[in-house]
Automatic annotation (TrEMBL):
Top-level taxon of the source organism: Bacteria
InterPro entries noted in UniProt: TPR-like_helical_dom_sf
Protein name: Tetratricopeptide repeat protein
Organism: Ornithinibacillus halotolerans
C-alpha cells in the first residue's frame, strides 16, 4: 500500500503539457522557413483552430496558401482579417495585391497595392508594392476595365473551374464554361484563347486555328496566340508556321509563373526539349505545382534528355498531388511526334 501511495503521489506531481496556439504557431513558422509547406500548413491550422480570432495566425496561414499557389484561399483569409480588424493589419493590402497579380487580376492588384502605399508609405512592403505597380503598368495584359468586386469573384470561380477541366483534358466541359465566360466577360481575352485551345483538342482543328489567327490579328505579340498556334501547327505538321511562333516564344520572358509555365509546356510539346527544360527549372514550383501539366511535361522533358531518375521523382510527386495523373502513361511512354 505504501508503495502504491508513493507512486500515486509522484504521478500527481507530473504537470501535463498542453500545447497552446503560440506553440503551434512557432512550429509552423519554423517549418515554413525550412520551406516544408505541408507541415507548416498543419501546424498553423492548429494554431488558428486554437485561437480562431488571432489575426496574426490567419495572416501566416494565408502566406502559406500563397506559397503553395492557393491564392483564392489566401485572399479569403486576408479579406476576413481586414473586415474584422479594420486597418490594424495593413500588410494584408500588399499580400492581397500580390495574390491578385498572380491570378492575373491586375486591376485588383493595382487597387490593393495603392491602398497599402497610401496607408503605409514607408512600410516593410512599400518597395515591393512600388515594384508590383511598375510591372502592372508595363504588362501587356493589363485590362483597362474597372471590374466590380462581385464580377471579379465570379470570374475567379469560372477561371478555376475551367483550369481544372483543361488540366484534366475535359474539353467538352471546358468549352461549355468558356462559352459562358466569353458572354459574361467579353473583355477577358484569355477565355477566347482557352476556347480555341479546347476546340482544337476536341477535334475541331481548322476552326480553332482560324479563331486563333483572328485573335492574333488584333494583337500580333500576344503570348497565348503564339503558344496556341505553335502547338496547333506542330500537331498538324505545318513545320514552317510552327517554327515561326516558337521563334517568337524563345524571346518572351513573362513575369507571371502561369505564363512562364505555358511557354515551357509548349516548348516541351513541340520538341524544343533543352529550351523547355531550362524554362521548367526557372519556375517557382510552389506556385505551379497545382498544374498537372507541370508534372506531365517536366517529367517527360527530363526523361527524354536522359534524366530518368529526375523524371520518375517528378512523375511520382505529380501523381501524389494529382491522382488523375496516375491514370495516364508515364513519361517513358510519351511520344513527341
Amino acid at each position: 500500500m505504501q508503495t502504491a501511495n508513493k507512486k500515486e503521489k509522484q504521478s500527481n506531481n507530473v504537470i501535463p503539457f498542453i500545447p497552446t496556439g503560440d506553440f503551434y504557431f512557432a512550429k509552423g513558422v519554423e517549418s515554413f522557413r525550412k520551406r516544408k509547406f505541408d507541415i507548416a500548413l498543419k501546424w498553423i491550422t492548429k494554431a488558428v483552430e486554437s485561437s480562431p480570432h488571432n489575426p496574426l495566425y490567419q495572416c501566416q496561414l494565408s502566406i502559406i496558401y500563397t506559397e503553395t499557389g492557393a491564392f483564392h484561399k489566401a485572399n479569403q483569409i486576408l479579406t476576413n482579417v481586414l473586415q474584422t480588424t479594420g486597418d490594424n493589419y495593413i500588410d494584408c493590402y500588399y499580400l492581397l495585391a500580390n495574390n491578385y497579380a498572380h491570378l492575373g487580376l491586375l486591376n485588383d492588384a493595382k487597387k490593393f497595392a495603392n491602398s497599402y502605399l497610401e496607408k503605409q508609405p514607408n512600410g516593410d512592403f512599400s518597395e515591393d508594392a512600388k515594384t508590383l505597380l511598375e510591372l502592372i503598368e508595363i504588362d501587356d495584359d493589363l485590362d483597362d476595365e474597372d471590374w466590380e468586386i462581385e464580377e471579379e469573384d465570379e470570374l475567379i470561380i469560372y477561371q478555376e473551374t475551367v483550369f481544372h477541366h483543361l488540366e484534366n483534358k475535359e474539353w467538352d466541359k471546358a468549352l461549355i464554361l468558356l462559352e459562358e465566360m466569353m458572354v459574361l466577360f467579353p473583355e477577358h481575352k484569355i477565355a477566347q484563347h482557352e476556347y480555341s485551345y479546347a476546340l482544337f483538342f476536341s477535334g475541331q482543328q481548322e476552326e480553332a486555328i482560324a479563331m486563333e489567327l483572328e485573335l492574333m490579328r488584333e494583337d500580333q505579340s500576344n503570348l497565348y496566340s503564339h503558344t496556341n498556334l505553335a502547338l496547333f501547327y506542330y500537331e498538324t505538321n505545318q513545320d514552317t508556321e510552327y517554327k515561326q511562333h516558337i521563334s517568337a516564344l524563345l524571346n518572351i520572358y513573362p513575369i507571371h509563373e502561369q505564363q512562364k509555365l505555358r511557354i515551357a509546356v509548349t516548348l516541351a510539346r513541340t520538341g524544343f526539349l533543352q529550351e523547355a527544360y531550362n524554362r521548367f527549372r526557372m519556375l517557382n514550383k510552389s506556385i505551379v505545382k497545382s498544374h498537372i501539366s507541370y508534372y506531365r511535361w517536366y517529367s517527360t522533358t527530363a526523361y527524354r534528355l536522359g534524366e530518368p531518375a529526375k523524371a520518375l521523382n517528378l512523375w511520382e510527386e505529380g501523381c501524389r498531388k494529382h491522382p488523375n495523373l496516375s491514370k495516364e502513361e508515364g513519361p517513358w511512354n510519351y511520344i513527341l511526334t
